Amino acid sequence: MKEQTVKSQKGLIDAIKYWSFLNLGILLMAAGIYFFKAPNSFATGGVSGLSIILANALPIMSQATYMMVINILLLIVGVIVLGRECGALTIYCALMLSLENWMLELLFPITEPLTSYPIMELVYAVLLTGIGSAIIFKCKASSGGTDIVALVLKKYTQMNVGTALLCSDFLIAAATFIKFTDGGIELAAETGLFSLLGLFAKVFVVDDILDSINMCKSFTIITTKPDEINRYIVAEMKHGATVHIAKGIYTGEDKTVITTVCRRSEAIRLRRKVNDIDPHAFIIITKTSEIMGKGFRDNIS
């Protein structure tokens, strides 16, 4: 009974952490879009970029309202065309992103950029939306929008998701070179160049943030006291390890080489424990963002 209670509490804590993390990602994306992308007309792709273009070209609705309408339409198309591929998490993220953008519009109404430094605002726009996107991807979700378009293209063409998503975002970013005015259409080179720069920068930011979030540590421990270290790894850290018998060339002593991996938050504890058990242990620690197997990431065929 006690064990079931502990498991239930752990499950509740994990769920709270997951939803808090997911909603943090959505909030960062919404803030980046509303405070930095929209006022500067930066359209680095996605539904947010398309809504910014439409709000400038057809100002019958606000940017946030356009984004909500487009997301709802795309979600309906996704459910009809893709079925289960358009999951509940995508619906939740897309609607929450639109809702939070709309709420920011009500709470903090702005009609012009926050500063007179567009390059600084572009940096914040890329960082906030890039970090937010990475967090959402880490939670195995998506913000909908052009993700759904890419999945539809993948289903009916030979194009893969990455290529389809990049193409749709590139076209949206390129469209910002056109500026709609009362007198007609003008070339907006500055906004277009900023948007394309933001699109390319965002790709690198998302990749780097995902690598950082997924960062784990690989330990190679050479010791003469393997039993205590192995017990700690298995009993306390709930991880496995691989053991090799070796001989030190310099000392000629028989030693044991323990290889294990752990999350970044566990690495400091393991290093301290190994030093406590065997102060003379030789420890090699390397960074890795790709660990596949039980307890980490599922194997991909």
What does this structure look like?
This protein is an alpha+beta fold and 301 residues long. The protein has two domains: 2-213, no CATH class; 216-288, Alpha-Beta Plaits, CATH 3.30.70. It has helices spanning 2-40, 46-57, 63-82, 88-107, 118-138, 146-156, 161-174, 189-213, 226-236, 264-277; strands at 178-181, 184-187, 216-223, 242-247, 254-263, 282-288. The strands form two sheets. A four-stranded antiparallel β-sheet has the order 4-5-3-6. The longest helix has 39 residues, at 2-40. The radius of gyration is 25 Å and the shape is elongated. The mean pLDDT is 78.
Secondary structure topology:
Blueprint: H1 2-40, H2 46-57, H3 63-82, H4 88-107, H5 118-138, H6 146-156, H7 161-174, E1 178-181, E2 184-187, H8 189-213, E3 216-223, H9 226-236, E4 242-247, E5 254-263, H10 264-277, E6 282-288
Main sheet attributes: strand count, strand direction, barrel closure: 4 strands, antiparallel
> What strand order characterises the main sheet?
4-5-3-6
Number of helices: 10
Task: Provide the domain count.
Answer: 2
Which spans of ≥5 residues are poorly predicted at pLDDT below 50? Answer: none
Overall helicity: 55-70%
Question: How many E-type strands?
Answer: 6
Please state roughly what percent of the residues sit in beta strands, choosing from under 5%, 5-15%, 15-25%, 25-35%, 35-45% or over 45%: 5-15%
Q: What number is the mean pLDDT? A: 78
What is the 3D shape? elongated
Quaternary form:
single chain
Structural class given helices, strands, pairing?
alpha+beta
Computed over alpha carbons, the radius of gyration is 25 Å
Order of helices and strands: HHHHHHHEEHEHEEHE
How far apart, in Å, are the first and last alpha carbons?
39 Å
